[in-house]
Amino acid sequence: MLGRASLTDVARAAGVSVGAASKALRGKPGVSEATRKKVNEIAERLNYEPNPIAQTLVSGKSGSIGMFAADQGSFSSPIMAGVQNELSANGVTVLLSNAFGDVRLERQCIDALLARNVDGLLIVNHNTNIRPPLHEEVPVPVVYAYAASSDERDCSITVDNVEAGRMAVRHMAEIGRDRIAIVCGEASSKAAIDRLQGAMEMMDELGLTPVNIPRFGTWMAEWSRQEILRLIDAGTAFDAVICQSDVLAMGALDVLHTHGISVPQDVALMGHDDWGPIVLNTNPPLTSMSNALDEIGRLAARRLMDAMDGKPSHGVEYASCALMRRASTDC
Question: HTH lacI-type domain: from which residue to which, for each copy (predicted)?
Answer without folding.
Answer: 5-59
